[in-house]
Amino acid sequence: MNPESEFGIVIKDEVDGVFHVHVLLPSNVSLRSMIQEDALTDTLVSFSHPKFAKPTDLYVSVADDPKNVYGQREADTDRLENLKRDIVTMTNQEAVLEDPKSDSPCIAKSPEDEAFYRASIVDVSESGVLVHYVDYGNFEEVPKENVYRVPPALLVYPVYAVHLAINGIEVPDAWSEECLAELEEQCPPDTLATFTAVTWDNANTCQGDVIIEEKSLKSILVSKGVLVNTDPDFVLEPLQEEKQTPEQEHAAAQEQPTSDPENVLIYPSLEEGTSVFVSVSNGPSDFYVQKEEVADPLEELLTILEAADKVPCTDIYVGKHCMAYSTESEGHYRAEVLEAEGDGVLVRYVDYGNQETVSRDVVFVLPGDAAKLPVYAVPCSLHSTQPLPLNDGAWPEAALAEFNKHISPDVE
C-alpha cells in the first residue's frame, strides 16, 4: 500500500466527495490530452455523467414515465447557462456530421426552437436522426443537416440531466393514461425535487425514488393504484401525514444503526494545484490519491492501529467504519464496510482506496485515537471521461493499460 507517482491536480467538479479532475503529469502535461494523442480518443472521450450517492436536489426537466424522469441539479443552474452560451459561440455550423452513428455525441439544432443543444445520437434513418438532448432528457428527430460535430471544449462540461428510474416497480408493456397523468400532475417541469439513489446501472441511470415536498413519488403512485410495487422491502408511506406515537418513534429509532464515534471519519478535500501520489487505480473514472505531505501521518496512524487493542466488531453493517486486518498486506488498516453478507466482509481501506474481502473475525472496533485522524485517500475521477455505451459501461483493456501506463512509477 505504498504511494507511487507524484502528480498535480486541477479540480473541475466535485460530486458526493468524488473529485472530477485533470491530472498533470510531472512534465506538466495533461494526462487526458496525452491519452487523446495516443489514439484512444474514441474510447475515452464522450459526455461525462456524474453520479451521486447522497440525496440530491434537482429541477425536474422531463417526466415521460416512471422509468424515465430527468432532472437538473440545483447547483448546476449557472453552469447550464454558461454551457448554452458556449454552444452558440463554439458550434461550427459548417461541421456537419457526414456519417452520424448511434451512441455518438453531437450538437443538434432543434427544429422546434432553432436552438443548439448537446445530444447523443440514438438512431439514424432515412427520415432523419433521433437524438437525446443529454442536458435536458427529451428526445427529438432532427434532419441530418442539423447534426454537427461536438467542439472538444464542449465535452469538458458534464451532462446536466440526471436520468432517474423509480426502482422496484412492475413495468407494463404500455403505461396507463392514469399513471402518466398522475406523474405529470405530481412532477411537472421545473418542480424542485430530491433524487435518492439506490444504485446506478451501466446506462448511467439512477435507480431510486423522487421526493417532492417530503413525499415519495413511488408511494403516491402506488397508493393511487397506478403503479405496482415489486420490492418486498418497500414501505408504503401514507398519503396523509400521520403523527407517530412515542412507541412508533422509539421502534423506528431502534432499527437504525447506533451512532458511534468510530463511525464518523473526517474525509479530506483537494485544493487547486495540490501535489499528490496515486495510491490505487481502477481506471480513469475510479482512482485514489494521497497528498504529498501524508507520508509521516500515515506511519503514525499505522503505529496506533498495530498497538491498539483488537476488540471484535459485533455490529457489522454497510457503511460501518472499522479496523480490519489485511491478509494481502499483513497489517491493520482503517476500513469502511461495503458488503456484509455471509462469512466474508468486503471492505475498502479508506486511507489507500483498495478493497479486500476479509473474514468477520478480523474486523475490529476502530480505536478512538485513530477515528480522530482525517482520511488520507481522496477518491477521484478523470474529468469528462467515461467508457462509450458500446462497452456496457466497462473500460476496455486498452484504455486501462494506457491510463495506467501514464501513472506508473517510471513516468518521468
Overview of the molecule:
The protein has 412 residues and is α+β, with helices and mostly antiparallel strands. It is 20% helix and 31% strand. It is built from eight helices and 21 strands. The protein has a five-stranded mixed barrel with strand order 1-2-21-15-14. It has a five-stranded mixed β-barrel with strand order 3-4-10-12-11. Strand 6 and strand 7 form a beta hairpin. Helix 1 (31-44) packs antiparallel against helix 8 (397-406). The longest helix is centred in the first third of the chain and has 14 residues, at 31-44. Mean pLDDT is 82; it is low at 36-44 and 253-259.
Keywords for this entry:
412 residues, alpha+beta, globular, 20% helix
Average per-residue pLDDT, rounded, comes to 82
Which descriptor suits the 3D outline? Answer: globular
Main β-sheet description: 5 strands, mixed, barrel
Distance between the termini: 21 Å
Strand content: 25-35%
**How many H/I helical runs?**
8
Task: Supply Rg.
Answer: 24 Å
Can you count the beta strands?
21
Please mark out the parts with pLDDT under 50 across 5 or more consecutive residues, or reply none: 36-44, 253-259
With strands numbered from the N-terminus, the spatial order across the biggest sheet is: 1-2-21-15-14
Task: Write the SSE topology.
Elements: E1 6-15, E2 18-24, H1 31-44, E3 56-65, E4 68-73, H2 77-90, E5 105-109, E6 116-124, E7 129-133, E8 139-142, E9 147-148, E10 161-166, H3 177-186, E11 192-200, E12 205-212, E13 215-216, H4 217-223, H5 246-255, E14 275-281, E15 287-291, H6 295-307, E16 321-326, E17 331-339, E18 344-349, E19 355-359, E20 363-364, H7 368-371, E21 378-382, H8 397-406
Parallel strand pairs: 2-21, 10-12
Antiparallel strand pairs: 1-2, 1-14, 3-4, 3-11, 4-10, 5-6, 5-9, 6-7, 7-8, 11-12, 12-13, 14-15, 15-21, 16-17, 16-20, 17-18, 18-19
